[in-house]
Design goal:
single chain, Rossmann fold, seven-stranded mixed sheet, two-stranded antiparallel sheet, 6 helices, binds 5-O-phosphono-beta-D-ribofuranosylamine
Length: 203
């Protein structure tokens, strides 16, 4: 087996996707190692999960700098120090600028709780639910400087049942996120993901 893929996980909140990645590593389904968890929110439960799993973790305070470009510089520096293969956004609430992304070409991915390009941005589950679509789901994509606009790597469909509530739908999407994200990261670890313009091919 090749060496474990070195991951940085960026998380601003609850960290359930972080937990799914940790669990997949622990059970041997994902050949990766989380080298650091970084949060821009001191109270993020993701940091507590990292601590409970004895993973290196830091709160990188946005108040330390005066604008988002400076924050991106600080963040890139921290990540570079660790020698990282893939930067995994898991509920990361800050936009990353082109300057940051240029330092990690095709190495930054995100998960979004809708079938992109439908319903980008905040509250995607609610947007889909209220729109009345019959199918929604989740998407793993490369990150570009837009909001949820990067090349799509993988998607999982979740049908919306007539008796769904927003809560029940959100829960079912999250279950699929927790399956999809570690699977996609494992594909990176096997070197099977290729970007061809906007198209992403899986070998
Ligand atoms: C997930 O729904 C993810 O798709 C979105 O933010 C949420 C993060 O949840 N980008 P968690 O912090 O991983 O529990």
């Amino acid at each position: 087996m090749s060496r474990p893929l070195r991951l940085t996980v960026l998380a601003s909140g609850r960290g359930s996707n972080l937990q799914a990645i940790i669990d997949s590593i622990d059970t041997g389904r994902l050949n990766a190692a989380i080298v650091i968890v970084i949060s821009d929110n001191e109270d993020a439960f993701a940091l507590k999960r990292a601590a409970a799993n004895k993973l290196p973790h830091i709160f990188l305070d946005p108040a330390r700098v005066s604008n988002s470009q400076e924050y991106d510089l600080l963040l890139a520096e921290k990540i570079k120090q660790q020698g990282v293969d893939l930067v995994v956004l898991a509920g990361w609430m800050r936009l990353l600028g082109q300057g940051f992304l240029d330092k990690f070409p095709d190495q930054v991915i995100n998960i979004h709780p809708s079938l992109l390009p439908a319903f980008p941005g905040l509250n995607a589950q609610k947007q889909a639910f209220e729109y009345g679509v019959k199918y929604t789901g989740c998407t793993v994509h490369f990150v570009d400087a837009g909001v949820d606009t990067g090349p799509i790597i993988a998607q999982q469909i979740v049908p919306i049942d007539p008796d769904d509530t927003l809560e029940s739908l959100t829960k079912r999407i999250l279950i699929e996120e927790h399956l999809l994200y570690p699977r996609v990261i494992q594909l990176f670890s096997e070197n099977r993901i290729y970007k061809d313009g906007r198209k992403v091919r899986i070998k």
